[in-house]
Write a structure and sequence with these properties.
single chain, mainly alpha, Phosphatidylinositol 3-kinase, Chain A, 16 helices, 61% helix, elongated, Rho-GAP domain-containing protein, RhoGAP_dom, Rho_GTPase_activation_prot
Length: 370
């Protein structure tokens, strides 16, 4: 089946590409005829590239998938080159008024690049460097760091162990939304990046929760959900069930719960004991397949927007928003249902993993903080 394309997205994108050449020509007219000619050529090529995107999406009934994908990627790459070439030619031909032309061309090129990146992201599901919203095993495999834990979690844990364990309500406070968006962008661009100097530990703790909320399948996997809930207070049973996890999930779960154990040992200062931490993390570590999402998980996912780093290729509701420049408070669109009962069994599982961490994860290498 072809991917659904909402009218608003198609209209906004088409309008943008249709007016790009006009804006460049207007800037060029203030500087000379040669600029207008070059700008017109660039604008025409852009519109033809957009037609390639539309045609490729309409052909996904399915013609050979690789052919469509190659056309999408080639068009996206060559469009940026054409913009740069057009700007270069403009600068060479005219000196008077070049500032106006460069500003208009750069603005158009930047906007076009953003749209093209989002279209390519549609085709692939996520960008090649993203860590948020990507299966955890794929992230670890791509990073090739020698660790079986995503580097974003390693960086956050190292930072908190050194300078954040005493902060009151660590992992409970929401953190600053704009700071979180910046941190998400940072790690989607470079998963091995260091945290900015002076970042608030509360924001770092919230980033850990955002990451766990974003991955498509929980650390405990869907298949073990019922088994874990049934064995929630049995250390031997939990130990044996967790051995069924993929290695990356097992080691990351060990790493996260080791961090939570460290936090709980400072509960007299941070007011976050093992029960409080379990309440915060259970919805992010365990959930049933097909679950639409707890209020907490949904809220954290919406906290990640914008920038649009996580794109649901099957959704018809959010794609046209990729063209919008307004920074809307997306989290306000989620109605929090206070009557929704907590999953107490999952909370008990996570609490047990924290309190009896060393006894349950006997086969894991003990987490060592630098």
């Amino acid at each position: 089946m072809p991917l659904a394309e909402p009218p608003q997205w198609r209209r906004k994108a088409t309008d943008f590409f249709s007016t790009s050449s006009v804006k460049l020509k207007q800037a060029g007219q203030s500087a000379g005829d040669n600029i207008a000619d070059v700008a017109g050529k660039v604008g025409s090529v852009v519109k033809s590239r957009w037609a390639v995107f539309q045609e490729a999406r309409q052909q996904q009934q399915h013609p050979p998938h690789e052919t469509v994908q190659e056309r999408i990627i080639t068009a996206a790459a060559s469009t940026g080159l054409l913009f740069r070439k057009g700007i270069s030619e403009t600068k060479e031909k005219v000196a008077v008024g070049k500032v106006k032309v460069e500003e208009a061309a750069k603005k158009t090129a930047d906007k076009s690049k953003s749209i093209l990146n989002n279209i390519e992201r549609w085709q692939k599901g996520v960008a090649s460097t993203d860590v948020f919203g990507v299966p955890i095993e794929a992230t670890v495999q791509r990073e090739q760091s020698g660790k079986a834990v995503p580097l974003v979690l390693v960086r956050c844990a190292d930072y908190l162990v050194i300078s954040g364990l005493n902060n009151e309500y660590l992992f409970k406070s929401e953190g600053d939304k704009k700071v979180l968006q910046q941190l998400v962008s940072l790690y989607n661009e470079d998963s091995g990046a260091s945290l900015p100097e002076g970042v608030n530990p509360i924001d770092v703790g919230a980033l850990v929760k955002c990451y766990l909320a974003s991955i498509p399948e929980p650390l405990t996997t869907f298949s073990l959900y019922d088994e874990l809930r049934a064995a929630r207070v049995s250390i031997p049973d939990l130990r044996n069930i967790l051995k069924k996890l993929p290695n990356v999930n097992y080691m990351t779960l060990e790493f996260v719960t080791a961090l939570l154990l460290r936090v709980s040992r400072k509960s007299s200062l941070n007011k976050m004991d093992s029960r409080c931490l379990a309440v915060e993390f259970a919805p992010l570590i365990m959930w049933r397949q097909g679950d639409a999402g707890t209020d907490l998980r949904n809220h954290l996912k919406f906290t990640l927007k914008p920038p649009p780093k996580i794109v649901d290729t099957t959704s018809n509701t959010a794609t046209w928003d990729l063209l919008d420049e307004d920074d809307e408070d997306a989290s306000s669109q989620i109605p929090l249902d206070d009557a929704s009962p907590p999953d107490y069994s999952s909370i008990e599982v996570i609490q047990c993993l924290i309190e009896h961490h060393n006894a349950i994860f006997t086969d894991a290498n003990e987490t060592v903080w630098r």
